[in-house]
Amino acid sequence: MDVAVTCSVCFRVYQQGTRDPLVLPCGHTFCRVCVNAVHDISGGSLPCPTCRSKASISDVSKLPICYPLVGLSSSYSEIKFGSCTIHEEEQRFWCTECELALCSLCLYASHQHGHEVMPTKVIMENKKKRLHQELERLNGEVLQGRSEINYIYEYLTTKMKQVLNLEEKVDLLSADVQDACSVEDILVCEDKLKLLDEENELWLPNKSQEIVKKMKDMNINDAAFEEDAEASSHGIHASLHELAEEDYGAGRMRLDYREGRLLMHSTAHPADGHLSFQVPSEVFLELAVGGSCLGRVYISLWTCLRRAQQFFALCMGTMGPSYIGSTFSHVAYQGHAKETLCCEEYVTESGEQGTKELMADLEWGDEYRGEPRTGLLIPLSKFVDQHGFGICTKGRPGGSFNCPFGEVVAGMEVVLAAVRHHPVTDVTITHCGLVLPRLSV
147, 317, 407, 430 — which has fewest CB within 10 A? Predict the structure, then answer.
């Protein structure tokens, strides 16, 4: 019965509306959520997860629903009663004062009289209703939070453009003042400075107080904001001073605003003293088994290597294929030094398994070798599976890996959970992408 009413992809019981059992042209049935996910990944075609036969489906909503399964799953999804450990009967009653499930014999033979007792089914339905109401409330807070984040982002982006535009004009006026060699030149510079002062009303050094006020107006009561505006301004300027003292080297790109466009300069252009953007190099993989998320793995890529650039492209899908939907193939050296979680595939735009590297002349061996250590990201082979990767879970002093090209910076516990799962081929990459870097001045 369990198998009949559950989707064979996510192993969840079919539910009318959200998880309708949809019948594919080949005759196999899966829930609406999984069919939509496969359809999105495959770019319009719909390969069956069971028999792999493909169908060209433009609109998933037009697939037929298997209504007999809807009825079966509805009755199956009804509350299941626990079994009494003493009398081995179903616990169909619930004492509201003891917060305890009871069977009929417990109720009449050993439970204290005078307590309010109700059917377990009624209690559970009431509890589920309250849980749904609380979840709706929390979802409303999530939507409000998203709206606030969008507002702050747009507000700060506008201010960033204003201050960069002002910076450009200050630089030009500084050059004019430096080159001034007559009274007329000085007077012109004074007029320009007056205009700049007027424009600067849009962005004064104390405008940080305005940002804090706007955030407080939106009830963003974060502990990072001080109670009074003066303390808030001091805290912001102090944090900016700390950022300015950091040595970012060539890993940051200067941001500029010219001719109505936001420009990101080459890393060869000095970013010191300007608003800058850290070079993106950290990506994430979200791992799951069935419909259960194991967590996310955060990886810092060594982007000077082509292997890291290829991995980045597969995380972002910028060249078409991506790791979304890929499963792990095996664990190399399991239980020993150099133990590595391995993935040998990516998914193409048509939903098929990818078998070719995306970039040529990928590094291997010689000066690219590295000593095995926990968290290291490595290639799998020089000749085949050059798109594949492995994550080392046990180091080996004195050993070597051919061309490691990144390292896990957070989420190793997720990698270890995947290694422990049997079979490891059940572990799937459900999401992946870029970790956004931060701005600094």
Answer: 147
Helix (H) or strand (E) holding 194: helix 183-199
- Supply the DSSP symbol for 108: I
Q: Answer yes or no: are the C-beta atoms of 281 and 300 closer than 8 Å.
A: yes
The span from the CA of 336 to the CA of 393, in Å, is 10
Tokens in use for 86?
């003493």
Residues 6+ apart with CB under 8 A from 43: 349, 350, 351
* Both tokens assigned to 350: 């048509």
Predicted TM-score (pTM) of this structure: 0.56
Backbone angles phi, psi at 397, to 5 degrees: -60, 135
CA dist list (Å): 237 to 5, 168, 230, 232, 252: 60, 22, 11, 9, 21
Q: Do the strands 252-258 and 389-392 form a parallel or antiparallel pair, or are they unpaired?
A: unpaired
The Cα–Cα gap between 244 and 322 comes to 37
Nearest to 396 by CA among 334, 336, 331, 335: 336
The dihedral built from the CA positions of residue 239, 241, 247 and 250, taken in this order, carries a sign that is: positive
Question: How many angstroms separate the CA atoms of 229 and 209, rounded?
Answer: 6
Handedness of CA 306, 312, 318, 320 (dihedral sign): positive
332-350: b or e for each residue (b if 16 or more CB lie within 10 Å)? beeeeebbbbbbbbbbbbe
- Residues whose CB falls within 8 Å of the CB of residue 253, separated by 6 or more in sequence, listed in order: 264, 265, 266, 267, 269, 271, 276, 277, 278, 279
Q: Is 192 helix (H, G, I), strand (E, B) or coil?
A: helix
Residue 205 scores a pLDDT above 70: no
Q: Which residues, other chains included, contact 320 with Cβ-Cβ below 8 Å and sequence gap of 6+?
A: 348, 349
Please name which of 379, 382, 386, 339 lies closest in space to residue 358, comparing C-alpha atoms. 386
CA gyration radius, the chain: 30
Distance, CA of 267 to CA of 269 (rounded, Å) = 5
Which H or E element spans position 244?
A: helix 229-245
* Per-residue pLDDT reduced to its tens digit, 367-415: 889 999 999 999 988 777 788 999 999 999 888 999 999 999 999 999 9
Tell me how far the alpha carbon of residue 130 is from its chain's centroid: 29
CB 376 within 8 A of CB 404: yes
In whole angstroms, give the CA distance from residue 263 to residue 266: 10
From the list 90, 96, 89, 103, the residue with the least C-alpha distance to 124 is 96
User: Residue 346 above 60 pLDDT?
Assistant: yes
- CA dist 244 and 174 (Å) reads 23
